[in-house]
Design brief:
The protein is an alpha+beta fold. It folds into four domains: 307 residues, FAD/NAD(P)-binding domain (3-Layer(bba) Sandwich), CATH 3.50.50; 137 residues, Elongation Factor Tu (Ef-tu), domain 3; 99 residues, Arc Repressor Mutant, subunit A (Orthogonal Bundle); 51 residues, GidA associated domain, C-terminal subdomain (DNA polymerase, domain 1), CATH 1.10.150. The protein is built from 21 helices and 22 strands. Strand 1, helix 1 and strand 2 form a beta-alpha-beta unit.
Length: 624
């Protein structure tokens, strides 16, 4: 070993694994450094992937040739498409996963990825030369050189866990914290702060009374995360279960608030607004008599269960007393209590859209060190950081995604443009073009882009093209094939849809809310024959064609709006204007533009505090 690499990735969490495999698959000699090689891509909190908007991110990662969707599908023990009662822009895939098998799958991928190596150690310091990172130093005293470094340390930087008044240094339960990196970066001018997140207790399945709970089975259909036809769910499926807290639960929790690190001043940092602890829920929603709780299995053969919605850092006995008042959990035994954890993060406005730091060349940040929360947000950042680290050292144009191209683009633009004042979590509401950013069409948006840079392979690209041809062909068939009243009225009547008085195109029938293509094909033999030609992607083709037809008006309108606003992204202003001396700008605008130094007018327009008037002034200054 000469300890010389193209790229070093610090941390083998979700961001780190995705970054390392990405850069290695692109051809960079990559070293992944982790404290514990047995906990690669550990699901530190709930054993689940995806969810509202997060599921879209996972599909985008997969569409580009990333790994999270593949690992999730292979380790899924329950799959659901959330928000099916709403429009397709809101549909979000989510899976429960076997925690141990998730690690095993990732370990296998890393072990079988060319150009990728591992080292078990803790990084304590970067090596800089002339404002460029050139390597790292570790606890073992090893000096490792690289042309680029990606920091994905998760919650480990100065991590401090809280269970009541008890404080334990660590990045995760039973794992040590990391020191040195934050202090070094602060010394050279990086802005850093503290955030807080938490996790609930883990329960022993053998002591749960499931007869008192409400069963929540998964979906049994074709949906999954990966677009590859050869990737499927392989494990037995398990149900989740629902129960509720009650007034007695809340009384016990309220009595313990004076000992809560969140309320007695022990924790000063900000926690996630959208994933609050149970003690925060009873304070914020004091008028509610109960809160829904989900019990989630940790694996196929595991007796460990996750109690979703009961995150807490209250004293151990308070947690035990409270959970014993919940229906079905009266005699439950704990494997371990919930806890809160504080950790260091860096203001993400110090990054470019490539996730390279503005201050140090070839140093990239990804994941929770950027103030985000969630495996999916971390993995998406890791993918982009891995791509751009490789490009930085091998040449090529930077790879970024716009807000109308991907949720990952929305995520990164929000981070580097607006910064964070609480752990950032993705929602569909954050995306102004969510009709374009559906979970079903991530491959249409991103696979060709990834193929051109060498990340998505030919097999993936060919599968995408075949699916796209199928959708286009099916839509064309529906638009050009007529049907007579006598051949379809019986079907329409059975669907409580008005009968035809004259013939029409099949596509006109698909536009009806009571009619879908799959059922229509059973009534129209020629349509069924057409669909059967695409048996490999039949379900995806039907769904894709139906969405395009039913929502074409909305899709086209949103494309038009996106194209109009996208023009502002083509007006480059980075380092071209002296904001301090543009007196026509507001004082707030001058300060924020100087701090962010936006790349384009479009980015400038999204900085909080920048008004339409300020944008017009910038356009005038640029001669537009």
């Amino acid at each position: 070993m000469d300890f010389k690499y193209d790229i070093i990735v610090i941390g083998a969490g979700h961001a780190g694994c995705e970054a390392a495999v990405t850069s290695a698959n692109l051809g960079s000699k990559t070293l992944l450094i982790t404290m514990d090689m047995n906990k690669i891509a550990q699901m530190s909190c709930n054993p689940a992937i995806g969810g509202i908007a997060k599921g879209q991110i996972v599909r985008e990662i997969d569409a580009m040739g990333g790994q999270m969707g593949i690992v999730a599908d292979k380790t899924t023990i329950q799959f659901r498409m959330l928000n099916r009662s709403k429009g397709p822009a809101m549909w979000s895939p989510r899976s429960q996963n076997d925690r141990r098998k998730f690690i095993e799958e990732w370990t296998d991928i890393i072990a079988n990825t060319d150009n990728l190596y591992m080292w078990q150690d803790t990084v304590t310091q970067f090596i800089f030369e002339k404002n460029t990172v050139v390597g790292v130093k570790t606890t073992l005293g090893v000096e490792i050189r690289a042309k680029a470094v990606i920091l994905t340390a998760g919650t480990f930087l100065s991590g401090l866990m809280h269970v009541g008044e008890k404080q334990i240094k660590g990045g995760r339960v039973s794992e040590p914290a990391s020191y040195g990196i934050t202090e070094q970066l602060k010394e050279i001018g990086f802005t850093t702060d503290r955030m807080k997140t938490g996790t609930p207790m883990r329960l022993d399945e053998r002591t749960i009374d499931f007869s008192k709970l409400i069963e929540q089975p998964g979906d049994i259909d074709f949906h999954k995360f990966s677009y590859l036809k050869e990737i499927n769910r392989e494990l037995p499926q398990r149900s989740c279960w629902i129960t509720y807290t009650n007034e007695t639960t809340h009384e016990i929790l309220n009595r313990g608030l004076e000992f809560s690190p969140l309320y007695n001043g022990q924790i000063q940092s900000i926690g996630p607004r959208y994933c609050p602890s149970i003690e925060t829920k009873i304070v914020t929603f004091a008028d509610k008599n109960s809160h829904q709780i989900f019990l989630e299995p940790e694996g196929v053969n595991s007796t460990e269960w996750y109690i979703n919605g009961f995150s807490s850092s209250l004293p151990l006995q308070t947690q035990i007393d409270a959970v014993h008042t919940v229906l079905g959990l009266e005699n439950v035994q704990l494997f371990r209590p919930g806890y809160a954890i504080e950790y260091d993060f860096f203001d993400p406005t110090q990054l470019k859209h490539t996730l390279e730091t503005k201050r140090i060349k070839n140093l990239f940040f990804a994941g929770q060190v950027n103030g985000t929360t969630g495996y999916e947000e971390a993995s998406g950042q890791g993918l982009i950081a891995g791509i751009n680290a490789h490009i930085n050292i091998h040449g090529g144009n930077e790879f970024t995604l716009y807000r109308n191209e991907a949720y990952i683009g929305v995520l990164i633009d929000d981070l580097v443009t607006k910064g964070v004042d609480e752990p950032y979590r993705m929602f569909t509401s954050r995306a102004e073009y969510r009709i374009l950013l559906r979970q079903d069409n991530a491959d249409e948006r991103l696979t060709e882009k990834a193929y051109k840079i060498g990340l998505a392979d030919r097999n993936r690209f060919e599968q995408y093209k075949n699916k796209k041809i199928g959708i286009d062909t099916l839509i064309e068939f529906l638009k050009t094939t007529s049907i007579k009243p006598k051949d379809i009225n019986a079907f329409l009547s059975s669907k409580n849809s008005s009968e035809l008085s004259q013939g029409c195109k099949l596509s006109d029938l698909v536009l009806r809310p009571q009619v879908n293509i799959k059922e229509l094909a059973e009534a129209v033999p020629t349509l069924k024959q057409k669909i059967e030609k695409y048996f490999e992607f039949k379900e995806e083709i039907i769904e894709g064609a139906e969405i395009v037809l039913k929502y074409s008006g909305y899709i086209e309108r949103e494309k038009m709006i996106a194209d109009k606003l996208h023009r502002l992204e083509n007006i480059l202003i980075k380092d071209k204007l002296d904001y301090e001396n543009i007196q026509s700008l507001s004082t707030e605008a001058r300060e924020k533009l100087k701090k962010i130094n936006p790349k384009t007018i479009g980015q400038a327009s999204r900085i909080p505090g920048i008004s339409p008037s300020d944008v017009n002034i910038l356009l005038v200054m640029m001669g537009r």
